[in-house]
Amino acid sequence: MDYSPAEIMTEYMIQQGLVTDPSDQTTWPIYTGLLPDDGDVEDDIVACMDTEAVKDGRIFSSGENIFHYGFQFLVRAVEYNDAWQKAKALEDACELINRDEVDMDSTVTYRLDNVTLTTGVTSLGQEEGSKRRQIFSVNFLVTLKEI
Fold it and tell me: Rounded distance, CA 47 to CA 41, Å?
């Protein structure tokens, strides 16, 4: 794969309009692989992280290994309910995926064959520091294929 599952899911959620690219400087930017806390970063943001994959076996006829790749959304917001609602919206959007395609650039497209919720929306409590923003997570496994 040319892209990590977190990068693919980040792009998918941007294409769905649930989050925005950080360069757009609009509400609910999404970052891949980090939850930044610089002075110029919004309080209300989403991060998509790669998590552990599960190998589900091998197809004997082709020798192809089947992996369910792990990913996690972390949602941070000043208000508890805002963070919960955004995490729930991301969960709901993943539950609706049905072999959707994600165009990553002009040369590679991925098909999301299956998305499985592994842990629903979970409060991780308040972030340490002076802002004490709320953080939630929601975790999945995804089966995807480059097409």
Answer: 12
